[in-house]
Amino acid sequence: MGMTQVVNDVVGADTALLRTQLPAPRGIRSAARVAPTPVPPTQLVAPVLPDPSVPAVPEVSTVPVSPAPVRPTSPRLALVLDAAIALALAATAVVLEVAPLAVAAAVVAGWPLALLAAGRYGRLSLGQGRFARPGLVLRTGGRVAVVALAVSPLLWTTHLIALATLVAACALASTVPALVGARRRGLRLVLAGRPADVRDALASMSPATGHEVVAACLTRSSKESLGDVPTYVGFESSSSVAHHHGADALVVLPGAGLQPVEVRRLHWSLAGVGTELYLGTGLLDVEPTRTRVVSSGGLDVLHVTQPALDGPRRLVKDVVERSVALVAFVLALPVLAALCLAIRRETPGPAIFRQERIGRDGVPFTMLKLRSMGVEAEGQKSGLSSDSEGVLFKIRLDPRITPLGQKLRKYSLDELPQLWNVVRGDMSLVGPRPALPGEVARYDVDPRRRLVVKPGVTGLWQVSGRSDLTWEESVRLDLKYVDNWSLRLDLTILARTAQAVLGHRGAY
Q1: Which intervals hold domain Bacterial sugar transferase (predicted)?
Q2: What are the pLDDT digits (tens) for 335-357?
Q3: What percent of the chain clears pLDDT 90, i.e. is strictly above it?
């Protein structure tokens, strides 16, 4: 009765959020003496009242009191697999006389424990990429090898190389099930907030994450459907909803209107069912590395650092990019010469196309490209209609493009002369899309943010779809790059550029 009394004291406070009894921790929940008393369905969730004038919304008006679905046992399975891998490799090393029995036994006992201490078998967290677990396994293997080599002279005077090799083999082998598990399962999520916010969150969630929205708790009934997602009205039973659907996390979206005390009590209730709580910040495309929670004067706030638009790192970027572009331009001169001759033979006119673009801080510059259209292309533009909505002028089957020009665009060879723009300092290797003066004249507030840095030969817009992107998607990607720029992000984009060029996606 002690646990029951504590739980009742917690929810006895005046609040409209938790009218149901807080679930006890899992290890105690199965005990009959602390089993929660079933609450009438009318107390669990406010029903969604049907309106004959609007389409019916898929809903579940009550939270079933049946046991929650059994959660996957992948952490236990991963532990067994890692132990089996260590045992198999250690046995092989002993049979082949690569390592003595004492070293093999230490690895068999220590490898799973090292992964356990590193968090390998803990629950996935929202925001973790598919390579987070494999990376954790590799880092753990490296640390264990270093520690083992440091202390091994105190225990064994020989077989240091065998010990390090065996640990490295375990790390590489354990990476495979970690990578397969990351591909197989994402998180089960419950979204809580206003109907419009929940719909936007559902639409913006990337399928690549593998996360599954299993339910939604809305502030009010909605006229528009959320598809097959079970819908509940009110947050009074969010923990019961999360428990019933076996959710890993409850995401409270901005605009939900919860008071701080309600958020705290919601966190308590979710702890009883093993569900993590995440609060939406309302920030758009801000990397976690730019944020931190600070407390001052009893006020807890989220601090967002300013983007790095100037400073030493920008200087390093400029020097390195201009140096790399100069070397690449010199190496590409024979290819450029051959392409220029081919262009001149196909159609009359200059092989290099010069066009005014807008650079950093709105300063115009002349951008160079290999000509992929006829010399009268600009004059013919007025008679064509764009396939896209918004500022950009895009035509999927542009009749002005020559046969050779199509191949140049397919492999992005027409952009090789832009390396000289990088050498001159007009452009960067990585940056936002270079804009035309007519496009900039139509910019509103958000797109103008792109002009605070140099435009790039490649960028997030190119590796994410190029011309297949809508105007809004292109702007959002460029702003995400500008506000979250880092040298590491540039390296990632450059690595993805080769894949995008070879895949030809959006190249027209």
Answers
A1: 317-502
A2: 999 999 999 998 888 999 999 99
A3: 26
Match 């569900």 to its residue by tokens: 275
Consecutive H or E run containing 104: helix 101-118
What are the helix (H) ranges across 205-259?
Answer: 238-244
Q: Domains of the chain: which residue ranges?
A: 2-67+186-282, 74-184, 312-503
Coil, helix or strand at residue 12: coil
Residues 442-489: tens digit of each pLDDT: 898 999 999 999 999 999 888 887 666 778 888 889 999 999 999 999
* pLDDT of 57: 40
- Measuring CA to CA, which residue among 172, 165, 168 is closest to residue 96? 165
Residue 116 pLDDT exceeds 50: yes
d(CA 9, CA 28): 17
Are the C-beta atoms of 62 and 41 separated by less than 8 Å?
yes
The CA-to-CA distance between both ends of the chain, in Å, stands at 71
Q: Which CATH code fits 2-67+186-282? A: 3.40.50
Give bridge partners of residue 232 from the DSSP assignment. Answer: 217
| Alpha-carbon span 94 to 103, nearest angstrom | 9
